[in-house]
Amino acid sequence: MSNADGLLRSRVNRSPGTARLALGDLLVMVGFLVMGELRHGVNPVTMPGRVAGTITPFLVGWVVAAFVVGTYAPGATRTVRTAVQRAAGAWVLAAAVGLALRSTEIFHGDAPWTFALVVTATGVVFFSAWRATVASLR
């Protein structure tokens, strides 16, 4: 086994439950980001590119953060406390990456600093609630 394969196995559980968990995470992220877009008058049906441009940097951030934090590692949802800590930690890092990407010319951005606080706090609440629910059902 190579070092890279060992690292991947320690950070990503390859069970079918992990795929379902990742799908749930994606739905949580898309759900609260689309709610934010709607709140700001952006219609996802008539402006799908705008919505995709909002979601994509945070999705990239989530992929990076989930690996770093071990959000899909074996035991990541074994207890409610562990599940919430990993979800919250991953989202804080994912939001930082997403916000940094949004500050580039590749994605739309130029949001006020309050947006950073709101998107980070909202994500922590939504991901923590979702992951706590998953852990409590195990």
UniProtKB/TrEMBL annotation:
It comes from the Archaea. It comes from Halorussus aquaticus. PANTHER family: T12C22.21 PROTEIN. Residues 43-138 form the Nidogen G2 beta-barrel domain. This is DUF3054 domain-containing protein. The chain crosses the membrane at residues 21-39, 51-72, 84-101, 113-132. Keywords: Membrane, Transmembrane, Transmembrane helix. The lineage of its organism: Archaea, Methanobacteriati, Methanobacteriota, Stenosarchaea group, Halobacteria. It holds the Pfam family DUF3054. InterPro entries: DUF3054, G2_nidogen/fibulin_G2F.
